[in-house]
Amino acid sequence: MSNVPPKSTVKKPRATKAASATTAAAAATTAAQDLKDATDPVVSPQRVSDIENAPKIGTEDVTPAPEVGTIPSGHEQIIPGATRVIESSGVGAPTVSVVIDTGEIIIAEIEPEITPDLLTIEERAAYQAAFADEVPVTPSEIVTTTGTEGDVTLAGPSRRDMLKGEPFAHPEPVSMLTPERILEKSNKREVPSPGWNRFVYHATLHLVNLGDSPAERHRKAVDASISRPLTGGTRFVPVLTRKGGVGKTTVTTMIGMALARTREDRIIAIDANPDRGTLAERFTRTTEKTVRDLVAKTNAITSFSEFSTYVTRDKSRLDVLASDTDPFISEAFDENDYNVVADVVSRYYSVALTDCGTGIVHSVMTATLNRADSLVIVSGGSFDEARLAAETLTWLESNGYAELVRNSIVAINTATQGTNLVKISEIEAHFQSRVRDIVRIPYDPMLATGSVIDFDRLMPATQDAARTLAALVVDGLPSK
What we know:
Blueprint: H1 17-25, H2 27-39, H3 48-52, E1 98-101, E2 105-108, H4 121-131, H5 159-164, H6 179-182, H7 196-203, H8 214-226, E3 235-240, H9 248-262, E4 267-271, H10 291-296, H11 304-307, E5 312-313, E6 318-321, H12 327-330, H13 335-345, E7 351-355, H14 363-371, E8 376-380, H15 383-398, H16 402-406, E9 409-413, H17 424-432, E10 437-441, H18 445-448, H19 460-475
Parallel strand pairs: 3-7, 3-8, 4-6, 4-7, 8-9, 9-10
Antiparallel strand pairs: 1-2, 5-6
């Protein structure tokens, strides 16, 4: 915003024949006066007060000049005291220029309907900075005002004074010391991640920086999604299906490992299969304790170190709570037992994955679904496996879990038999219309063995699928 008054656009009057005689007669006098003016200081009005304190000139004192354009804004005559209107144009600068030429001609530009009472503090400050000998004031430096006239109290120097390096009479407030003002902005790219782009960066002695490749940027974006902070309590994510043998336990393991490798908080996978669960067989076990032992000793657990003796920790930092290996004993794992385990887990973990059994009407399934914040439904690549997974969604919708279904993820395991005989794209299209997203799990020799899983030894495509699935799960977890 400029504080310099706009130049008058009114044309100056032209000389006429009637005035030529007067002009000739006054030539000698003008020459003598010019000689005197050359030695005397020229005083011209620089402030509003100079104009306001000058003797008032009425319309009877004005000698009209022919062919002078009318005063802008429809005014037909000079209004006595009009100089009081020269305050603001709405952009912080005066709109009236007054030229007094020996009392003969007055040319004024007057903005209609503008009075001093309509001035804002910022406009008045800008006007004072342009026409007064005071320290310029910016809106950020105005701290107090009084009355309708908007008296200004200065809180510090203007930015113009600071740039000039001139001394200032007012100390700068601490609020002016901001990071945006102090820190230098740099457009320099970060050093590329390991790969071809980093090789080029070092080979050119840091002169060529291509940045990260698109694949590397995608990987970092997935990591950012997985690492999203979760506050407000433990999130429970059941992994279920109505058909066994489609890779439900394998998918639980992959999600858990992908989460634990990237996140800073604790992740646990619980084997809640009322029959004999096999989740612990995907890891190298460090303890023989199971959920049954935890239920029996839950009142004695007062710290995480005590709880950690009941779980197996993988090198990816994933904790696993195994189920009983005896099917007759594990059958007793019911709704109440699951709630006891979930209450203890909620003290120490941010995310709890639950590897459910195939019995969808079992009592433990009710407790699992009541605590669920999101769902992962596992489907095989064959017709009957996809059909049973779809029926699982229908059952959930019919029993009050329609919102969970809409927020769920479907993982399609393409390693099952018959996958190459069906149209996977049609299966995906069906689930896409019912759930939030789908992920295709490719065939991997390590997963096909059904034994211990080492995430680092999985094929890159399998790792990417697991990480994408984990990121989608975290994206769907609600805030608490």
